[in-house]
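Feature request, filed as a ticket because there's no other form

It would be nice if the structure record came with a short human-readable summary line next to the C-alpha cells. Right now we just get the raw output. Example of a typical job, pasted below so the devs can see what we mean:
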Amino acid sequence: MEFRRRHNTYYSTLTARGCRNPVGVVTRENIETAAWLGTADRVVVRQLADAESVLLDIEAWRNTLLDSYQRIPAGTYMVGARIEDGVIGVMDGQKPMLRHVKGEKDRLGRAVIQEAVEPTPWYMKTL
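Raw output as currently delivered:
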C-alpha cells in the first residue's frame, strides 16, 4: 500500500508501514505537518482512547506497485487519527477511509473536474 502527497514540487511516497516521514494534516486555516506512523484498520483506531480524527494531505493511493494510482477527487480527503507521536492513516478494509468536505474551494488546491460526458455518436446526431 502506497500513498502520494505533494511535497513542494514533487510527490512524496508514504508506505503502509510507519516511516516517520512528514505528512500534512489539513486544518481550516492551513496544513500542519506530523510524523507518519503507518496505517491501521478503523476498528483498531476506534479502540484508541486519545485518537483525534483529522484530514490528511494525501492526493492518491494504490495497493501494489503494479496497480495504478487512484486519485482522490477535490473536496475529498483521507481520514487519519492523530495520536501523541504522530498520525495514523485509517483504512476501511483494503482501501483508505475517505471523507467528503463540502465547501467552495479544495484546501489542497486541487481543481474540481467535471464528470466526463460521452460524446454523441455521429449516427445519433440530427441532420
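Something like this underneath would help us a lot:
The CA atoms of residues 116 and 122 lie 18 Å apart.
The radius of gyration is 17 Å.
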